[in-house]
Amino acid sequence: MRTIYICLVAILALALAGCAQPPAQAANDADLRPILVEDVQVEIGVGSPIPVEILVAGTWPDLCAQLARITQQLDGDTVTIELLATAEDPNCPPDFVGVPFRMAFPINAVELPAGTYAVSVNGRSAEVVWPPTQ
Fold first, then answer.
1. N or C: more exposed end of the chain, with fewer CB within 10 A?
2. pLDDT (tens digit, 9 = 90+) per residue, 33-55?
3. What's the number of domains the chain is made of?
4. Domain range spanning residue 94?
5. Pair 44, 51: CB distance under 8 Å
6. How far apart are CA 52 and CA 78, in angstroms?
7. What is the pTM (predicted TM-score) of this model?
8. Mean pLDDT confidence for 91-101
9. Residue 92 lies in a domain
10. Are the beta carbons of 62 and 95 closer than 8 angstroms?
């Protein structure tokens, strides 16, 4: 099941890359907008090294929005991820339902010191204890 999920994420990433604007038409960083994140979870798998993923679910800002930038930062015991969408398009048709998304971000936890970590994605938070207890 995990292999299918990873393949689907890779296909989605390639599809989004194909829809990206050429560099000459790319939006200014000031025009980028945060994506609404409704749920953040941390999934710890089994294996060696132990796989850790941050699972994020939310809603695209509108029907024409594309993922424009992801920033990820570890500062002490806090992991902060920012997801930004392309600039608003005035020609985009209205979205009356909201298009949901789900993304997974792997975390290299091999050298993380033991402790409790806060994970924040666009203001929505979760907590994880590392290393996991049996």
1. C
2. 999 999 999 999 999 999 999 99
3. 1
4. 27-130
5. yes
6. 15
7. 0.75
8. 93
9. yes
10. yes
> Of 62, 60, 63, 80, which Cα lies nearest the Cα of 71?
80
The reply to whether 85 falls in a domain is yes
- Residue partners of 96: CB distance under 8 A and separation at least 6: none
Q: What does the chain come to in residues?
A: 134
With respect to residue 76, please indicate whether it lies within any of the assigned structural domains. yes
pLDDT tens-digit map of 11-35: 545 555 555 554 434 557 889 999 9
Q: What sign does the dihedral 85-88-89-92 (CA atoms) show?
A: positive
Residue 65 maps to a domain: yes
What average pLDDT does this structure show over 77-96?
95
Considering the chain, what is the average pLDDT of its residues? 85
Whether 129 contacts 52, CB under 8 Å = no
